[in-house]
Amino acid sequence: MPPANLKINRLAKLAGGGLLALALALGGYACYALATDNFHTVVPGQVYRSGQMDAGDFSHYIQRYGIKSILNLRGENSATSWHQAEIATAEKLNVVHYDRSLGSGTPLTLEQMDDLVALLRQAPKPVLIHCNGGADRSGLVSALYCFAIDGEKPEQADKQLTIWYGHVPLIRPKVIAMDNSFWCYVTNHIVSAGPDKPAATAAGPPMKTGPSP
Fold first, then answer.
1. CB contact set of 151 (below 8 Å; sequence gap of 6+)
2. Sign of the dihedral defined by the CA atoms of residues 22, 28, 32, 33, in that order
3. What is the pLDDT of residue 160?
């Protein structure tokens, strides 16, 4: 049997290796996000998500993907240059623009989420959902679309809130509010997805690191 201190050294190496792997994953994500505006497809031809873009990048993605509407989750900020450029680009390219104000560390009410789902139902498609980094608020609203409108099972829709998009409650515990909001919505709604899909039901949230709701 190896000495106790040898076991401790092995455990320390394993823990260090895990932290290194996490750091490398986050570093890789950061490079990818910077290069691509954290742009991702949620439902092909229907919904896309991203971080904040400048006018040039907005124009690029709008024209490449045929975007018809934009949902900005940073709120109306008419005095800021980024919001002015976004509005001007949308008007120039005949894209409908919506503003909603969400905080990545603040749980949403059911009324707020019902409003977002109603807006997403009627927004011209394809719609681009964006916040600042494209990780947390955009993840929640994308998950709501997948569950409430596209009829995905909640466990599948919840994958919009993962490290792949930069959503890391382990590093930023406050953003668990987005996960808690989504599962609050799930447990309060039974959504019929249409004749070819069964009603969505909640099996309970997966384990994620962060403060309790």
1. 191, 193, 194, 197, 200
2. positive
3. 98
SS3 per-residue string spanning 114-161? HHHHHHHHHCCCCEEEECCCCCCHHHHHHHHHHHHHCCCCHHHHHHHC
Contact criterion met (CB below 8 Å) for 183 and 110: no
Which DSSP symbol is given to 98?
A: E
* Neighbour tally for 55: CB within 10 Å: 16
DSSP state letter for 173: G
Strands 47-50 and 40-43: antiparallel
Between helix 176-188 and helix 110-122 the angle, nearest 10°, is: 80
How do beta strands 47-50 and 96-99 pair?
Answer: unpaired
Burial label for 79, CB within 10 Å (0-12, 13-18, 19+), is exposed
pTM exceeds 0.85 for this model:
no
Looking at the DSSP assignment, which residues form a beta bridge with residue 53?
A: none
How is residue 197 written in tokens?
């899909």
How many Cβ atoms sit within 10 Å of the Cβ of residue 109?
A: 12
Collect the ranges in the chain with pLDDT lower than 70.
Answer: 1-35, 190-213
pLDDT of residue 13: 57
